[in-house]
Design brief:
Order of helices and strands: HHEEEEHEHHH
Distance between the termini: 73 Å
Oligomer: single chain
CATH architecture of the largest domain: Alpha-Beta Complex
Domain YdhG-like: 19-135
Largest sheet: 5 strands, antiparallel
CATH topology of the largest domain: Aspartate Aminotransferase, domain 1
Length: 191
């Protein structure tokens, strides 16, 4: 459920009191543990924590006008959620997170990157804080770039695949012309 709020204060003010208190408490934990290179604002209709363009000019690959999302906090229709992109796609981080949460004795309701909760008591705040702290912006950017822009794989040369190698367009065209001529010659001999 995307909010039309244009500021974090406006977003919080739009929430019912119980949700405002829960979201504010989680927000405070995030802010206490957030690396200085991240910024807080409204992103995708939620409270967002992101790498601003001044730190990562490329922005988010899906929409380069957007800063690179790192985490979000939202009040949805049937629950509240914390979206942790610093855990998504990082098996070691996810394993650590799930184990740390389990040690708290609280039930974890987690999707790929979101942790859903209905009341503040359901949230392992110390685990959320540590998850945020463990992902400084530089490390997050490095991981993001390694996933989104993997190193170029060198293709095997055409000759290794059993295909003729043409060094220029003209040479390639000559090869095609020779093949066509050879096929015509074979066709004439059969006729």
């Amino acid at each position: 459920m995307q909010s039309k709020a244009t500021s974090v204060d406006q977003y919080l003010a739009s929430l019912p009191e119980d949700r405002r208190a829960a979201v504010s408490a989680v927000r405070n934990v995030i802010l206490k543990n957030l690396d200085k290179d991240y910024e807080e604002g409204i992103q995708y209709g939620m409270i967002g924590y992101y790498v601003p363009h001044k730190v990562f000019p490329s922005g988010y690959h899906c929409d380069p006008k957007q800063p690179l999302p790192f985490a979000s906090l939202a009040s949805q229709k049937n629950h509240m959620a914390i979206y942790l992109m610093g855990i998504y796609g990082q098996p070691q981080q996810e394993k650590w997170f799930r184990e740390a949460w389990a040690k708290t004795g609280k039930k974890l309701d987690m999707g790929k990157s979101c942790v859903r909760f209905k009341k503040l008591e359901d949230v392992a705040l110390d685990v959320i804080g540590e998850a945020i702290r463990r992902a400084p912006a530089k490390a997050y950017i490095q991981h993001y770039e390694s996933v989104i822009r993997p190193p170029d794989k060198k293709k095997a040369p055409a000759a290794a695949k059993g295909k003729p190698v043409a060094k220029t367009k003209a040479a390639a065209k000559k090869t095609v012309v020779k093949k066509v001529a050879a096929k015509k010659t074979v066709a004439k001999k059969r006729a």
